[in-house]
Hints:
This protein is an all-alpha fold. The chain is 80% helix and 0% strand. It is globular and about 50 Å long.
Amino acid sequence: MHRQGLVLSVFTSGLLLGALLSALVLWTASGLLSPAPAHWRHGALLACALLCVLRDTGLLRLALPQNARQIPQHVLHRHLLGGALQFGFELGTGVRTYLSASTPYALAAAVLLHGGLLPALLAGSGFALGRAATPALRLASGAPSAWDARLTARLPALKVSAGTSLTLALAALLLLT
């Protein structure tokens, strides 16, 4: 069990590094959009978040820009800790594999359209820790197969509630600014 905890810690470190890199790239690119009027950027952000929620509910069919394949398993088999770090990094960037939910796209749009270094770093950290929660909770459950079944049954509701929560939080934030 101790070895699994170490691998999970290294994997989580990789997730954080990859997600923070993506957040910094989005934050840097946000400077290109900063001359656009704030009301345009805010409207585009809310529209993007709403489209993501509609996609996750199944009310809208929308292809997302993503690499629709998984990270090869050989990454983990070459060297356990190095593979866990690489796998976490690649997964953390959000561009090497597919995402099952649309909410990360709304979060990326928020960083791109709203800007701010601290919000970008917080968004990247939140994305990484959210992705790390799945294997951590699965490991802590003591019954991975039963945990997987419960996750599969609840995933549609989790995706919609996460997207809706993010959309409402963004709307409140934009109203306050």
